[in-house]
Design brief:
This protein has 205 residues and is mostly helical. The chain is 62% helix and 8% strand. The two termini are 24 Å apart.
Length: 205
């Protein structure tokens, strides 16, 4: 898809009413007397749809710059940790994804010259991931791009409304992690750690 076509698709996507197909998206069935009917859970639908559309928007906007949304997540996480480098296991924990996923993303970023692995100063067998000069150039650019997109996404909302939404979603996230820990098994065992929960989440995305 060309940048021009991608932009046109993005405009059409943003203008589409995400609620117009709500009934179809929920799998709601016709009321046939005593047969059960799946009721609409608007909150869950909206959370899912907002996340899905935002991922699509960010991927389309970042594509011309030669970086994916997932790779940008790695670079931004590394930048928040200073320029002291980070172990991949710590990066995976910070991003709440599996170590294998982070390893693949770091591999691609290293191949493109955005990051590099260096031996840890205290343990030569361990490797730390560092952002390169090219990586910092991309970060500077993407901070501006993502800031503009986020302002567009949150247009029409007050700071207080955004803060309230963040608090609500944080509580929901915490509750969902508790449900995962109670019900999802890994190799027949209950998930009891953040890394275990993250691995399950990553495998189901």
């Amino acid at each position: 898809m060309s940048h021009k076509n991608g932009a046109a698709y993005l405009v059409a996507y943003l203008e589409e009413d995400p609620m117009k197909n709500r009934e179809e998206a929920t799998g709601k069935v016709e009321d046939l007397g005593e047969e059960p009917v799946a009721q609409q859970f608007a909150f869950g639908y909206l959370v899912h749809d907002v996340s899905r559309i935002r991922r699509t928007v960010m991927d389309l906007i970042m594509r011309p710059y030669g970086i994916t949304r997932s790779q940008w997540s790695v670079l931004s996480a590394l930048s928040r940790g200073g320029n002291n480098g980070m172990m991949q296991v710590d990066l995976a924990r910070l991003m709440e994804v599996g170590k294998v996923t982070v390893g693949g993303l770091v591999d691609r970023l290293e191949a493109s010259g955005h990051v590099e692995r260096r031996a840890d100063a205290s343990d030569r067998r361990a490797k730390r991931v560092f952002i390169t000069e090219r990586g910092f150039e991309v970060i500077q650019l993407m901070v501006k791009v993502s800031s503009d997109v986020n302002q567009r996404i949150l247009s029409g909302l007050t700071d207080q409304e955004v803060e309230s939404a963040e608090k609500v979603l944080s509580v929901v996230k915490k509750n969902l992690k508790e449900v995962l820990a109670e019900n999802i098994g890994v190799n027949g065992a209950k998930v009891s750690s953040l890394s275990g929960i993250s691995a399950v989440m990553n495998n189901n995305i």
